[in-house]
Amino acid sequence: MPINAILPAADALSWQESALCAQTGPEFFFPEPGSSTREAKQLCGACDMRAACLDYALTHDERFGVWGGLSEKERYSLRRARETR
Question: Whole-model pTM above 0.85?
Fold first, then answer.
């Protein structure tokens, strides 16, 4: 079940306040095309809000940047895999 389905609308984004990405700049999570996403993924791997972030990105069809530790291509693959179930 998506986190948005169990949280009131006002709380649906509350995870962002506690996320590690809120303490860094967007350049890690929205790198230039062809740049590495390694640093963003490492930070995401240490973040307690990773699952909520990924759920948000999948629910809202975020197409750019690293969300929940996954790149755009990885989220696309995950979405397609979920659709074929």
Answer: no
